[in-house]
Structures are given as C-alpha cells and as structure tokens.
Amino acid sequence: MLFLRRIAVVFFVFTSFSAAQNSTCPLDFSVLEPFRRPKPDGATTCQYLLQGLRLLYSHHLRQTGSFLPPPESAASCWAALQSSVAGFLPRFDVRSTCGFQTPWISQGCMDITTRSQFESLIPNSSLATTAMRCNTSLESNTPCASCTQSLSAFQPYLSGPSLGNVSDCASFPSIYAAAFANSLGPTDKGTAKCLFQLDLASPTSSGANKVKVLVSSFSVLLVASVLVITAWFWYCRRKKSKLLKPRDTSLEAGTQSRLDSMSESTTLVKFSFDEIKKATNNFSRHNIIGRGGYGNVFKGALPDGTQVAFKRFKNCSAGGDANFAHEVEVIASIRHVNLLALRGYCTATTPYEGHQRIIVCDLVSNDEEGQPVSVADWAWSLVREGQTLDVVEDGMPEKGPPEVLEKYVLIAVLCSHPQLHARPTMDQVVKMLESNEFTVIAIPQRPIPLVACREEIDRSVSSSSGSGKLTSPTGYQAFSFGGDGPSGNTNTT
C-alpha cells in the first residue's frame, strides 16, 4: 500500500511539472504580422524582436491588465516567437543569436505585473499629463515628441535593475502609454511607430512583386547590353583615332576632398559607442542633466578628464547618418557666442539599443561666471518674462512715454531674431517707427537650442499651444507684415 502511494505522488509531481513546462503562452504573436519584417542581419533583427515583444506586452496589458506572461509559460512563449519568425528567418535562433535568456520574457521592472501596481508608483499629475498628450494620433513628429517627453517624467519612479533589456524599466512607460493612455492602442500605425519604432508593411501582393522584379531585371539587362555595345564601339573608334590626352584631375580631386577638407578644418572627433558608454557610466541616470522629447543630455568625462555633455537622440535610423555627419561638421566649423563648441559625434548600431546618434559638446554650467552673454539673449529673456521696460537703462534722460519705449524694445528684439525670415526689412522698420499709433509686434518664438533641457522644451511646447508668438504684456494689438509694409489692426486698447 505504501509503495502504491509513493508511485501516485511521483506521478502527480511529474504530471504537474510537465503541465507547467507546457503551459500555453498568452501572448498573441499574430499582432506582429502586419508590421514590416527586418533584413536577416543580427543587429536590426534583434532590435525588431525586442520592440516586437514590447508591443506584444502592451497588447497583452490592454487585454488582461497584466504586463507579463506567467513564469511557467516562458518556454512556450519563446517557442511561439521562434515559430513566428521561422517563415522569414528559417535558420535564426532567437535566444542564442540575440543573447536572450528563457526567464527574461516573464520578468519585468521592479516586480511590477499589473496596471494598478504601476499606477501606484507614478504621481497622478504625471499620469494625467501623459493621458492628455498621448491620447491622439502619434503619426506626426510633434504629438510623438510631446508624448515621449511626458513619459520621461516616469523614469525617476522606476529605478529598478534592467533584466536583459527585454522588459526593463525604461520600456515600461511606453508599454503602459500604448495600452491605456492612447485610445488607438499599441497596434495603431502611429502608436507603433512612435513608441516601438515599428513600421507597417506595404500592402503589395507577392504576385505583383514578382512581376515588378521580372520587369526590372529585363530592363536592367537590356540597358546594360546597350551600354556595353556602345562603349565597345566608342573604345574601338577612339583607339584608332589618337591617344588620349592626360586628363585634368584637379577638379575631381577638389570635389572628392571637400568633405575631407571640412573634417581637417575642424577638430571634430568620431567617438565609438563604447567610449561614450564608458564616459557616461553606461548612460547612468545619475549623469542625466537634461531631458527632452528628442533625447536626454548626459554629463561625462573624456579620458583626459575634460567634462563634456552628451546629447543622445531618440528614434533614430541608419538612413540619415551621412546627412547627420555633414550637418555636425558644418556646425563644428562655426564659432559664435551663442553656439556651444562641438567636440565630436557618434553613429552606431547595437543589438540591444538599436541605432544611436550622439553629439559631444562642451559642458557649460548654468552658474559658471565669466561666460559671454549675448545682449540679444538678455533682452529676449526680459521680454519673455513680461519685463520689457527693464531693458531700458534707468539713468536715461527724457525717456518718453512707456508705450513708445516698449515699442522700441520689441522692434529691436525682432530685428535681432536668430532666424533671418523672422526679421523685418528696413522699410518695415521705418514704417513701424514713424507710425503715430502704438502697435506691438508679434515676435516668433526662437528655435529650441541643440542641447535644450527639459524645461526649455516644456516652455516651447506650452507657448506653441497658444499663438506661438511673443507679444507685449500691456495688451496692445499685434502688428503683422503684409506685402511690402505693415498691415493689420492698429487700434490700441
């Protein structure tokens, strides 16, 4: 009898273990079918799988209220993922190639598993801001930047360790926002692109693709044959006529060396991603000195001890690296009191972080003394704070009416605007100065600096929600340009 009981216990344990091992994965992998599939290379494929898993987490959270699948279903979830990619990557092993471990798919940030646990850690004000900014279509850049900027306020409350970058604390805000803050859901085209960097695949059929390939191949072959025959006849006739004269290669050499000469004219350094990770202590959150919708700013030290700032951009792709490098070279060749000196940049693609673009600037403290300050920036800051008359020197004799002085200050600020198209012509300035009625000019907002901090971007976004322009605090009507002179309502209040 005792022997039979032991056999029954062993059978029960074995059955329970087998059931746990074969637990069905609750993630719906068919959600990923409409999205564009990556090319078969390690870096982009692992990034696609990582972002795809996060989109699946968000869809699962929206359906069930739970962030992650249960631990007993980890093996079956990996098997389901492997099966879903086998159609376009038949010899690609997900876990061994990307370095994922089996338990990671069911482990998350700070042991958070449900929506209520997540919301209990975040202030209600931050949740409300995210719900307001993210509850719209995120296809265009402006609402996407506003939404992702609001999510950066969640990070100080999610300080747990990272577990393989599959469902780490940095990804939980996007997973939550796509599930609940955005009414369109994580599978929406704009939401998937903005929060998970996933694009929908083109709807063309396979038959149409085959026809296009055949037509393109025939056209290329025909053109190549004509070119080869033409080149052969031209070569034969040229060989019979006379020897070729030496070519003047000075113009070609000059064209090829333009970009090289620009690099030589600047001291710009192209840093490796590992060098920047070491300088910022692996992008530690303690090194963050600025947050924004387009990326964070980290402080760090170069090997020689120089303190610098690293601007790490978000949502980058490798397609625009050439233009990015050229623009950085141009900016580095300019010296101006209002521009920080650029030391270098970095463009790289990593298996876990994806494509990276980083610029390295001199670090300038806000309280650093002896730094040159532009008079135009100083006047702009006073006008922006509603202290227009503080620009005028106190000891100036015969100042005149305050309305006239305020008008002169606003005209001066408008004439010194950093964007050329926002400045008036001399004829327009003369007409404004000669006008007997006190009108106030609507001044366009200045562009956000390259290393803008979170407060500057917040201020720009809040101001753009109104008129988007800077006006006088005294209540005068705005003065606008039309044709070759000023026009508009010139009545005063």
Automatic annotation (TrEMBL):
Residue ranges annotated for the Protein kinase domain, each copy included: 283-493
Record-linked Pfam families: PK_Tyr_Ser-Thr, SPARK
Region of interest (Disordered), ranges: 461-493
Signal peptide (from-to): 1-20
Top-level taxon: Eukaryota
Residue intervals passing through the bilayer: 213-235
Binding site for ATP: 311
Keywords: ATP-binding, Kinase, Membrane, Nucleotide-binding, Serine/threonine-protein kinase, Signal, Transferase, Transmembrane, Transmembrane helix
A single MF term (Gene Ontology): protein tyrosine kinase activity
InterPro entries in alphabetical order: Kinase-like_dom_sf, Prot_kinase_dom, Protein_kinase_ATP_BS, Ser-Thr/Tyr_kinase_cat_dom, SPARK, Tyr_kinase_cat_dom
Stored PROSITE patterns: PROTEIN_KINASE_ATP, PROTEIN_KINASE_DOM
Protein name per Swiss-Prot or TrEMBL: (thale cress) hypothetical protein
Organism of origin: Arabidopsis thaliana
